[in-house]
Write a structure and sequence with these properties.
11 strands, 4-stranded antiparallel β-sheet, alpha+beta, elongated, Rieske Iron-sulfur Protein, single chain
Protein backbone atom coordinates (compact mmCIF):
# COMPACT_ATOMS: atom_id res chain seq x y z
CA UNK A 1 0.00 0.00 0.00
CA UNK A 2 2.81 2.44 0.79
CA UNK A 3 4.35 1.68 -2.58
CA UNK A 4 1.18 2.92 -4.34
CA UNK A 5 1.06 6.12 -2.27
CA UNK A 6 4.70 6.78 -2.94
CA UNK A 7 4.30 6.12 -6.65
CA UNK A 8 1.27 8.42 -6.81
CA UNK A 9 3.15 11.18 -4.99
CA UNK A 10 6.12 10.90 -7.34
CA UNK A 11 3.76 11.04 -10.35
CA UNK A 12 2.00 14.13 -9.00
CA UNK A 13 5.32 15.82 -8.16
CA UNK A 14 6.66 15.07 -11.64
CA UNK A 15 3.44 16.46 -13.19
CA UNK A 16 3.69 19.64 -11.11
CA UNK A 17 7.33 20.20 -12.10
CA UNK A 18 6.51 19.53 -15.77
CA UNK A 19 3.59 21.99 -15.59
CA UNK A 20 5.73 24.73 -14.03
CA UNK A 21 8.43 24.07 -16.65
CA UNK A 22 5.90 24.30 -19.49
CA UNK A 23 4.53 27.62 -18.18
CA UNK A 24 8.06 28.99 -17.76
CA UNK A 25 8.96 27.90 -21.31
CA UNK A 26 5.85 29.56 -22.78
CA UNK A 27 6.61 32.76 -20.87
CA UNK A 28 10.21 32.76 -22.13
CA UNK A 29 9.06 32.17 -25.72
CA UNK A 30 6.57 35.04 -25.52
CA UNK A 31 9.23 37.39 -24.12
CA UNK A 32 11.59 36.48 -26.97
CA UNK A 33 8.89 37.29 -29.55
CA UNK A 34 8.07 40.70 -28.07
CA UNK A 35 9.97 43.65 -29.55
CA UNK A 36 12.79 45.02 -27.46
CA UNK A 37 12.13 48.24 -25.51
CA UNK A 38 14.63 50.04 -27.74
CA UNK A 39 12.66 48.98 -30.82
CA UNK A 40 9.38 50.13 -29.28
CA UNK A 41 10.94 53.47 -28.39
CA UNK A 42 12.28 53.87 -31.93
CA UNK A 43 8.76 53.61 -33.35
CA UNK A 44 7.98 57.25 -32.52
CA UNK A 45 10.32 60.22 -32.69
CA UNK A 46 9.28 63.68 -31.54
CA UNK A 47 10.94 66.67 -33.19
CA UNK A 48 10.75 70.17 -31.73
CA UNK A 49 10.63 72.38 -34.80
CA UNK A 50 11.70 75.61 -33.07
CA UNK A 51 15.44 74.89 -33.32
CA UNK A 52 15.83 74.59 -37.09
CA UNK A 53 17.47 77.24 -39.26
CA UNK A 54 16.54 78.27 -42.81
CA UNK A 55 18.16 76.34 -45.71
CA UNK A 56 20.13 74.15 -43.29
CA UNK A 57 19.50 70.42 -43.75
CA UNK A 58 19.35 68.47 -40.49
CA UNK A 59 19.36 64.68 -40.49
CA UNK A 60 17.28 63.08 -37.77
CA UNK A 61 16.85 59.37 -37.15
CA UNK A 62 13.58 57.41 -37.16
CA UNK A 63 13.43 53.60 -37.03
CA UNK A 64 17.08 53.46 -38.03
CA UNK A 65 16.47 55.50 -41.18
CA UNK A 66 17.71 59.03 -41.91
CA UNK A 67 15.02 61.70 -42.02
CA UNK A 68 15.87 64.99 -43.71
CA UNK A 69 14.39 68.12 -42.13
CA UNK A 70 14.79 71.36 -44.06
CA UNK A 71 13.31 74.67 -42.93
CA UNK A 72 12.54 76.94 -45.85
CA UNK A 73 13.52 80.59 -45.90
CA UNK A 74 10.85 83.10 -47.06
CA UNK A 75 12.70 83.37 -50.40
CA UNK A 76 12.59 79.59 -50.85
CA UNK A 77 8.84 79.51 -50.13
CA UNK A 78 8.23 82.33 -52.65
CA UNK A 79 10.07 80.38 -55.37
CA UNK A 80 7.98 77.18 -54.97
CA UNK A 81 5.45 76.31 -57.67
CA UNK A 82 2.02 74.79 -56.97
CA UNK A 83 3.24 71.20 -57.45
CA UNK A 84 6.10 71.71 -55.01
CA UNK A 85 3.84 73.35 -52.42
CA UNK A 86 1.87 70.09 -52.12
CA UNK A 87 4.89 68.42 -50.47
CA UNK A 88 5.73 71.08 -47.87
CA UNK A 89 4.49 71.25 -44.30
CA UNK A 90 3.28 74.36 -42.50
CA UNK A 91 4.01 74.28 -38.78
CA UNK A 92 3.05 77.50 -37.12
CA UNK A 93 4.33 80.31 -39.33
CA UNK A 94 7.22 78.23 -40.74
CA UNK A 95 7.44 75.92 -43.74
CA UNK A 96 9.39 72.64 -43.76
CA UNK A 97 10.33 69.67 -45.88
CA UNK A 98 10.43 66.36 -43.99
CA UNK A 99 11.37 63.29 -46.04
CA UNK A 100 13.13 59.97 -45.63
CA UNK A 101 16.75 60.53 -46.64
CA UNK A 102 16.85 57.45 -48.87
CA UNK A 103 16.89 57.60 -52.67
CA UNK A 104 13.82 55.90 -54.08
CA UNK A 105 15.97 54.25 -56.75
CA UNK A 106 18.30 52.01 -54.72
CA UNK A 107 18.22 53.42 -51.19
CA UNK A 108 21.37 55.53 -51.30
CA UNK A 109 21.56 58.69 -49.18
CA UNK A 110 21.41 61.82 -51.36
CA UNK A 111 23.49 64.86 -50.52
CA UNK A 112 22.05 68.37 -50.21
CA UNK A 113 23.61 71.37 -51.93
CA UNK A 114 22.37 74.53 -50.15
CA UNK A 115 23.66 76.82 -52.91
CA UNK A 116 21.64 75.04 -55.61
CA UNK A 117 18.85 74.08 -53.21
CA UNK A 118 18.81 70.55 -54.61
CA UNK A 119 19.66 66.97 -53.70
CA UNK A 120 22.04 64.74 -55.65
CA UNK A 121 22.22 60.97 -55.33
CA UNK A 122 25.83 60.42 -56.37
CA UNK A 123 25.44 56.65 -56.88
CA UNK A 124 23.46 56.93 -60.12
CA UNK A 125 23.16 60.67 -60.75
CA UNK A 126 19.53 61.14 -59.75
CA UNK A 127 18.56 64.60 -58.55
CA UNK A 128 15.72 65.99 -56.46
CA UNK A 129 14.54 69.55 -56.02
CA UNK A 130 14.29 71.39 -52.71
CA UNK A 131 10.95 69.67 -51.92
CA UNK A 132 12.13 66.13 -52.72
CA UNK A 133 10.54 65.85 -56.19
CA UNK A 134 12.60 64.07 -58.87
CA UNK A 135 14.23 66.41 -61.37
CA UNK A 136 16.50 63.85 -63.07
CA UNK A 137 15.98 60.09 -63.34
CA UNK A 138 16.66 57.21 -62.42
CA UNK A 139 14.66 57.64 -59.17
CA UNK A 140 11.09 56.52 -59.93
CA UNK A 141 9.42 58.96 -57.52
CA UNK A 142 10.14 61.77 -55.10
CA UNK A 143 11.65 61.20 -51.68
CA UNK A 144 9.15 59.44 -49.42
CA UNK A 145 7.52 61.30 -46.56
CA UNK A 146 7.48 59.37 -43.28
CA UNK A 147 4.23 59.09 -41.29
CA UNK A 148 3.88 62.18 -39.11
CA UNK A 149 1.48 64.04 -36.89
CA UNK A 150 1.73 67.75 -36.14
CA UNK A 151 1.17 68.59 -32.47
CA UNK A 152 1.60 72.30 -31.81
CA UNK A 153 5.20 73.18 -32.72
CA UNK A 154 6.35 69.55 -32.74
CA UNK A 155 6.15 66.67 -35.17
CA UNK A 156 5.70 63.07 -34.07
CA UNK A 157 7.28 60.75 -36.63
CA UNK A 158 5.66 57.33 -36.83
CA UNK A 159 2.12 58.49 -36.11
CA UNK A 160 -0.33 59.19 -38.94
CA UNK A 161 -1.98 62.58 -38.56
CA UNK A 162 -4.55 64.24 -40.81
CA UNK A 163 -1.90 66.07 -42.87
CA UNK A 164 -0.08 62.80 -43.63
CA UNK A 165 -3.32 60.99 -44.52
CA UNK A 166 -4.08 63.79 -47.01
CA UNK A 167 -0.64 63.35 -48.63
CA UNK A 168 -1.32 59.62 -48.95
CA UNK A 169 -4.79 60.17 -50.41
CA UNK A 170 -3.43 62.71 -52.93
CA UNK A 171 -0.66 60.29 -54.02
CA UNK A 172 2.12 62.66 -52.90
CA UNK A 173 3.85 59.88 -50.94
CA UNK A 174 3.63 56.14 -50.45
CA UNK A 175 2.91 54.42 -47.16
CA UNK A 176 6.24 53.69 -45.46
Amino acid sequence: MTDKNRRGFIGKAFGAVAGVGAVASLYAMKKSWDPLPSVKAAGFTTLDMSGYKGNELITEKWRGKPVFVLKYTPEMVASLNDEQKKRVLKIGSDTYMIVLGLCTHLGCIPGYNPAEKAFLCACHGGTYDVTGNVTKAPPPRGLDIPPFKIVGNTIVLGEEGEEYKKLLADGITLSV
